[in-house]
Design a protein that fits this description.
By secondary structure, this protein is of the alpha+beta class. Helices cover about 35% and strands about 25% of the residues. It has helices at about 45-65, 70-95, 145-150, 155-160, 195-200, 205-215, 220-230, and strands spanning about 1-10, 20-25, 30-40, 105, 105-110, 115-120, 125-130, 135, 180-185, 190-195, 235-244. The longest helix is centred in the middle third of the chain and has 25 residues, at about 70-95.
Length: about 240
């Protein structure tokens, strides 16, 4: 059985919340958890994130029953849902000059048969807690992550780099997109955390682990509150999912 809790907040600085998320109820046939952190002036980010989440969700739900339920087919479905969402957001951005250049991160977790199928683009993150360990499953599609990978800067330097928020990849900004798609085990007592960078820019991985492993229902509220206490410079969204 899967239990999930979420909290989203505009933070202390921003005028609107451009994060958007969706979580399945425990009775839904497909267990689907999606988060998007939108960007773009005016209200472009808000439109991009909502459109991406709803398009990907509908695409997966409409096509899931048609596919073979093997690993490759589900991975392909996830990739296609993100490519389709990308096209929809990109087309929308061209309709209105005020929406030009809007885009969004997108994280999808589809849980099926003790596995989690993950789609990822941007710098929102997915972590998995198993026993005593927390592990970041996604790689940020950011300029500083590229520098870390190349060995130009350290992970510690990346945390305070002035171009920290510069994305190398986002959804909806170009006609084509290449998301990361993967599958991981999701066993009994495993916990997944999906969060926007409004959390991870202000709260350390160890604290995310501590809060989520202690109380999954309370964790999203506590983590959002902590990010706000530490400045709340961005919108903050946290989804915590446990395989009970």
């Amino acid at each position: 059985m899967i239990k999930a809790y979420a909290k989203s907040d505009k933070g202390k600085v921003r005028e609107m919340n451009q994060d958007y998320y969706y979580i399945s109820t425990s009775l839904d046939e497909i267990q689907l958890y999606i988060l998007a952190d939108g960007m773009g002036g005016y209200n472009g980010g808000e439109i991009a994130s909502k459109l991406a989440v709803e398009t990907a969700k509908n695409y997966i739900e409409n096509n899931f029953k048609e596919i073979e339920k093997d690993k490759d087919s589900i991975i392909q479905l996830l990739g296609s849902s993100m490519e389709y969402a990308n096209m929809v957001v990109y087309e929308k951005s061209k309709e209105n000059p005020e929406l030009q250049g809007m885009g969004t991160t997108l994280e999808i977790c589809l849980i099926y048969n003790n596995k989690v199928y993950i789609g990822h683009i941007g710098d929102s993150r997915i972590y998995r807690i198993r026993k005593e360990f927390i592990r970041k499953i996604t790689q940020d599609h950011s300029y500083v992550q590229k520098l870390v990978k190349e060995g130009t800067i350290t992970k510690e330097q990346a945390d305070h780099h002035p171009q920290k928020n510069m994305l190398m990849k986002a959804l909806g900004c170009n006609a084509f997109v290449e998301p990361d798609v993967m599958v991981k085990g999701f066993l009994k007592d495993d916990i997944l955390i999906i969060c926007s960078d409004g959390l991870t820019n202000l709260v350390e991985q160890e604290i995310i682990y501590e809060k989520a492993s202690k109380n999954i229902e309370q964790a999203p509220k506590d983590l959002v509150e902590l990010a706000n206490i530490r400045g709340g410079y961005d919108n903050i969204t946290v989804i915590v999912i446990k395989n009970i």
